[in-house]
Write a structure and sequence with these properties.
This protein is α+β, with helices and mostly antiparallel strands. 29% of the residues lie in helices and 25% in strands. The chain has an eight-stranded mixed beta sheet. A five-stranded mixed beta sheet has the order 1-2-5-3-4. It is globular.
Length: 352
Amino acid sequence: MAVMGDGAYAESGVDTAQSEAAVKALVSVLGTIDLGRSPRAVLGSGHYANVLRLDDVTGLALSTDGVGSKVIVAEQLGRFDTVGIDCIAMNVNDLVCVGAEPIALLDYIAVEQADPEMLRQVAKGLKAGAEQAGIEIPGGELAQLPEVIRGHPSPRGFDLVGACVGLVKLDAIVTGDRIEPGDAVVGVASSGLHSNGYTLARRALPNLDEPFGDGTVGDVLIEPTRIYVREVMELLRSDVDVRGLAHITGDGFLNLGRLEAEVGYRISDPPPPQPIFELIASRTGTPPEELYEVFNMGCGLCCVVPPADAAGAAATLGGQVIGEVTERAGVVEIAGLEGRRGAGFAPVSSSL
């Protein structure tokens, strides 16, 4: 296979810089909505979820996300019973990062053709994910859009999105504002690619039947996203001082920059990336600085706590201490790279 070189993700069709500019354009307009009253939103745009003030004590946390082009892998394999887990995971893992307990999710499924057996399989995944996260699915929407949705192959095309709600006490919202230099970063392993970077992954690995590990490339790419809700909720209910939570999705460890404190992060001992990341890199020539921005590289969740709480947090989460907080505001250091949100990673010799 030909080497893609630098900018492999953009060459695959996803330009993250353009996407960020587009989001800013969207938010700049939505931020001017005139309610005729004080807004209920507690947090600004850009965090993992937002919280609406219900009263002086309780907040309603909100998030929405989908499965992305991982649905194409499901279409190509004809396996639809796990992507529902991904839909749940991408939402609830964001919601817990503001300290909220997820309680319910509404699903939106757009299909090329309303196939009862396919939808039954999708529902099996949604059920499994909901049970893992401890949430209800009290309703949803099915849209038949044959002129909009085209499958790989047709007529298997579909898209899957969720909108999740949770509850959090207003004085218990986790934003990262109390993080200090010297705090410990605890990392929890991912189950693989989760639901990010699939445009690049699918271009790198077009043969889903290719043997890999104990199965095939398709088996690895369809592996569902890990759900962290029960471990995080147990930690939040403990005596551990949880100062920050970061869901490591697209942008990789740069997601730590969503936390509010003016600090930096040095990741010195991350969980090892699963072999699938090395295979993608070898097939595409994607350099480390892009891999660490596109993928989670083996770590799906980070938690920031005082050093004295690090061992307890790692035990509860089933993770390990992977680094520390620094005074270098906005800078994330990992694997000989440095980066900032919006600017990406670069080798240390040529970094910011």
